[in-house]
């Protein structure tokens, strides 16, 4: 974790007073980190108060919209620094062989490393046309690779650059050429790399009760099953909000399979291909009782918990049993504004989850808040953009490791305080969205972001039956990319938050 915070501290503090930043000159990296993570945003003023705010008295102010726009512009200019080089470092840009190539994209001259351009070659010699698999290794590229390029104009395919290599990969003859369209280069250079599969992020919207009530999306079952455009809109919304509802779902145990299969392969677990949520005696899971079930996520005791959970209501004939949901990313954003210390504790403190029964024993340890490992590519003005997923499931929390109780009493007490503060935000009335599923309705939610819970119900006065299924993250994002390429012309992937609830 130390390296993670070190990367973050390297982000330019453009939103902070220049006088304060100048005071850091000559300070150690530890002092700079301490300065950056100082919890000043929780005490900083609103925009209306900026006129009376003095840096010397109150410290740095919260970034304004202008600050955030400047940060985004700065980030965009730096996020491709591993692919693009400053012109001052270029020896040749006149068409002769060189290690770097200058390309004009929409009037903006960009200088690209030839290793990047060669490694990205998709000609039939470099990528199998059918399997789309790479036919050479990056390590095969000569360290002294040089290339030259020319512009190629095609009426159908548009403008491209064609590169000729003076020292190519072994086994490739002098006739080998690499061609990249300007459109491809534009996308490669202008997307924000999340470094999770090399795909672009999609905007995620944080929500509270008020916002999700206004933005909540209902989709008709038949349209979802038969129209790819509807599926694309539905999955895009699901990726942004983490919550989606469907209506007019047929009264069949197979309906949830059909819904999940529209996305891709279902995830098998020890619960089965699908599973039933019904009240029963001596239940091995609290979900199979009529008791109140608090906010949680499923299967955090496994190494790869499911990304999506689907719950189809087949019978809803008992009093009570309403479901409610909470956006853990929004609560984490709120927690950071309240206390950076609490936020950091939940990012680092190990929590054990387990499922221990006679025929199964699952066990996994992870922090409550899991950050992306490359914070440099996220928005430094919005700390929630660093969150990859949240792990919160009190019913399945196991005992702490003995060393934590004996040698780290202070950190354990810090965790209790941080988790208490976070739980209050998660369960606050303003953040909870409650809905009682009717028969023929299905809810789909992001199990790594949206917490779900259930009110108690009276099992003696009717039947309550939900049919459930899981889908993994790779399956979901694969489907979303395919649809995005078909309808939007761009990739999406596991995203970061861009719009916070004010």
Automatic annotation (TrEMBL):
Keyword set, alphabetical order: Dioxygenase, Iron, Metal-binding, Oxidoreductase
Stretches that traverse the bilayer: none
Cofactor(s) the protein requires to work: Fe(2+)
One cellular component (GO) term of this entry: mitochondrion
Gene3D superfamilies to which the protein is assigned, alphabetical: 3.30.2020.30, Clavaminate synthase-like
Domain TauD/TfdA-like: start-end pairs: 219-470
Protein name as catalogued: Gamma-butyrobetaine dioxygenase
Organism name: Setomelanomma holmii
Lineage, broadest ranks: Eukaryota, Fungi, Dikarya, Ascomycota, Pezizomycotina
